[in-house]
UniProtKB/TrEMBL annotation:
Zinc found in the keyword field: yes
Keyword Nucleotide-binding listed: no
Gene3D superfamilies: 3.40.1620.60
Residue span, ADAMTS cysteine-rich domain: 9-74
Pfam families: ADAMTS_CR_2
Keywords attached to this entry: Disulfide bond, Glycoprotein, Hydrolase, Metal-binding, Zinc
GO MF term set: hydrolase activity; metal ion binding
Native organism: Potamilus streckersoni
Protein name: ADAMTS cysteine-rich domain-containing protein
Signal peptide: none
Lineage: superkingdom: Eukaryota
Amino acid sequence: MTYVQTYTGQRYSPDDQCRLHYGLNSKLCETIPEHICTSMRCTNPTTGECLPEYNGAARGTLCGLAKVIHYFQCQAK
């Protein structure tokens, strides 16, 4: 049997990660893709305003053209 490792960021988009962290109506605030490696801002699910930053997006999250987050850095796939 072969085991293929799947990172959280491969399963959950940045918007999904915001919803999991803050609630159903939260989503990623507009940002430069590479910036979500170290800090990610999500909207308040009630007001829609951007909340303070929290840790970067999950490993495996897309962070640019053919790049993914790996150990808080945006790296080529």
